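Task card 7
Instruction: Convert sequence to structure tokens.
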Amino acid sequence: MTAAPLLDGRPRPLRVMALVSATGANLTTTLELAAERPDLLRVVLVASDRERAGALDVAARAGVPTWPGRFAAECGNHRACVTEEDRAAYRARAEAFHDRLLARVREFERADGEIDLVVLAYHRWIHGGFLAHFRDRIINQHPGDLASLDGSGARALVGMDPVGVALRRGDTATRTSTFLVDDTHDGGPVLARGPALEYHGPRPPSREDVDAHERRQKAHSDRPVLRWVLTALAEGRLALDPSRPRPDGTAAVLLDGAETPLGGHDLAADPTHEQDRAGAKAGAS
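Output:
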């Protein structure tokens, strides 16, 4: 039996919601693609975990409805959690925050039409009803190679500082992974990986070295892989096959019916994306 494409049966253009926390680089990429290919997708809503974020300004300038949030005021800070009881209470508040967001989304969908896909550029873990409502319909950009496994077979570059971990352990290059969000932390199936960006800085790298490299990676790797995944999803080219688990335990990702490697489609090996890579290098220079 052939696996059904992700987002199968959803009409085009896809109606996209973005969850944002910062400057809006990934939102800008999504909006640019929507402007170039209105047949593929349309950004219909942008929500944030905070009241002020550059991404909200990007959305407002594009005429997209925006929903600011107050996550820190309503949920607190996970770094302040000391005991397991503290962490459980924080998680309950975070789930309640996203449940309230989901209630607003459902009202929006009843009035304006269903949302097909959620794109994350978001600094919060999502659990509960929001995740269930958008099962296999949330994608996230992660600035680490999620095909890199440790000795136990687990993903080695998860968490909040994958670029720093990679450079401190001696990696010569880093890259961005786009994956389907599930209820694990950076554990969902990887759909694609962007071009690798070589590192030529000092060893060991300082925090400033890591941050500068990650900023360059946003142009070189984030942008092309997000554009590719959005296009492939809208064109119905990507599917999941749980009957063929990968070494990291996730379902196999199929591209045009053929199984992809552990890290999904590899843009570094795709000659059709020279133009995107050239543009990314120009933006990073």
